[in-house]
């Protein structure tokens, strides 16, 4: 349980050495550069200014991201459901990485891919236009003339129309003279609608249009590219679409070849993003007329390594301890067993530098809560096997290893809880193999049955008791933190006050059964009440409000806790009982329903039985695993962390080369060429 000790450093150097020193710090990868305000120097706003990076690599990062987006839009990075949540696992040796940085022609590669992608986009647009023409052609496929007719002549104009059959007949009969003079040809009839073409003299344009306005007529749109018969246009469109498809396939195959360089692009991305981070961080330095000031934090264990800077350059480095007013970055340091759960701690937010790292406690509590909430040995075994598989497949990838280690721990606890409660795929063994020796043995080690009335009460009591203990432990941690930060009054009156008052309040309910607890119970209540009243009294300055503050302190308005908050938080742990019971009941229900339905279908019933079992248990496993994860997170982050946790600053990030998309491996592990 450790937040690494940091040392605050100020490096003062000559302006001409600034870039060389920054490069050296970048190579050492140990200094977290912090923003320094010129106002801290008397007249600093006059004599100092923020430095401006002399170079930027953002254009190259943009090029790489653009190329990767081309690959994605071409469908070259499709993944399965599980793999889509996992990072890329590109591996290179140090020699291969350096070769990529020095020799990969990014500008040329970007130019080629951009030219090809633009060509592909043009073809896609042409293909879309041709498909629209194809749709339009289908709508008028019975048109018997060349479409050139619709373009008119010097003397005539044409319209392609559609309307109701009744209205069409009425229009023709009412305007017989007009349409005898001008041609009307019906070429299609579909249900109650007809399609027809009108060819009229330009001199009669106004008359024809005034007649048409009297009726509900739909104008059929025909692309201007149409000129021949429908068969000719269909052949033209299909021929053009085939040509476009061939060109697109050629471009796609070239992109598949380019996609083989994806790993190298990730290597370049890590390199340039590290440089960009370096340049952004150096914006936090201050420049004077002749000197530069660099402020930052370094792990205390690495302070000696900064001697290289002092040996190589004419600099002055001032070391000091971080103060409460500093925005101190946080570096967590845990044993390998607890390391994976730093991921969850960071998910909530890193702790303050002057508090405690909760990661080891989170490891135990999360695994325990998850195991109780899922509570089935078979599902726990599935989690363990799945986690081991991905740990093996992605061995060496720290992020993936941490993620699946969390579920490995949680799954292991789930197996134990499932065995102790007799839930192994629900009641699968008693339902299908009631006389098996394995069934008898596994049922013999069960300590309670959550589905029985007595077992449910015991399970619920255990869950709430666990919640009470966790809440009290949170108060203990709060007391430790307050003592460390020399907040003695807060630790004594609020911390010890609740640590005495809450157990005393609980023990009241057991006095009738255990009279010998009276002295301890009343002693705890009296001491706790006095401490809380004094704490509330001291929390305000106005004498008139001191009695009120003392009384409401017990309720929790003035203090960091409260009796109502305790009751709500403790009862919240009953969700562990509900989730664990629901897993067992749901799994058992699927077992019984599958057996019943399978038995109705004779010889083929075995296949139906297996299908229903597979579907039912897969659904139960996914739903309840998700529920166990969410509620275990909630019980830790909301109910437990709320008792002692103080959010801190950002993560300790020393300037240097960071690998986010690739891994550097040794030669004997084998890299990529």
Secondary-structure map:
Layout: E1 6-14, H1 18-28, E2 31-33, H2 44-47, E3 49-50, H3 58-73, E4 90-93, H4 94-103, H5 106-139, E5 156-164, H6 165-174, H7 176-181, E6 183-190, E7 193-201, H8 205-212, E8 217-219, H9 230-259, H10 262-281, E9 286-287, E10 291-299, H11 307-312, E11 315-320, H12 342-348, H13 359-374, H14 377-393, H15 398-421, H16 428-432, H17 437-444, H18 453-484, H19 488-507, H20 518-538, H21 546-555, H22 563-572, H23 574-598, H24 605-640, E12 662-665
Helix pairs in contact: 3-5, 3-10, 5-9, 13-15, 13-23, 13-24, 14-15, 18-19, 18-22, 18-23, 19-20, 20-21, 23-24
Q: Which descriptor suits the 3D outline?
A: extended
Mean pLDDT: 87
Structural class: alpha+beta
Radius of gyration: 38 Å
Any low-confidence stretches, pLDDT <50, length ≥5?
40-54
Tally the helices: what do you get? Answer: 24
> Share of helix among residues?
55-70%
Number of DSSP-assigned strands: 12
Strand content: 5-15%
